[in-house]
Amino acid sequence: MTSNNPKWTKAAGLLAQGFPKAEVARRVIVSRNTINNWLAKPEFVALVDKAISDHVIQFTERAIRDRDLAQQTLVDVLEDPEATNSDKIRAATVLQNQGNKSTEMRALINRVNKLEEDRDAWTKLQEKLSD
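User: That's the sequence. What structure does it adopt?
Assistant: Structure tokens below.
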């Protein structure tokens, strides 16, 4: 089997999402032993690793979009002439606290990108060694 096999792709994606091997086997319509055998193959493990990385990146991007939307909502409260002073103070406080977390989020994204680069370099090295 190769990494472009649809069953491998589906199984790798499910494992990356945290599904147990038994559930992955049921959904892919193979035995649990088959899943274990695939996990013994470096090519399949690399596919699972890539799926995990892709999953983390998608989650991070979604979190950033949600954060940006929340920040815009808070800015809208600050600019709303009908908002109470109490609501504006709360919105300003949350925005200030989020500013500190934005730096942490950027650091996390940079770490994920570095892991992605390291994984790609490792995959290329494995391919060279197997030739």
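The helical segments are 6-16, 21-28, 32-39, 42-79, 85-130.
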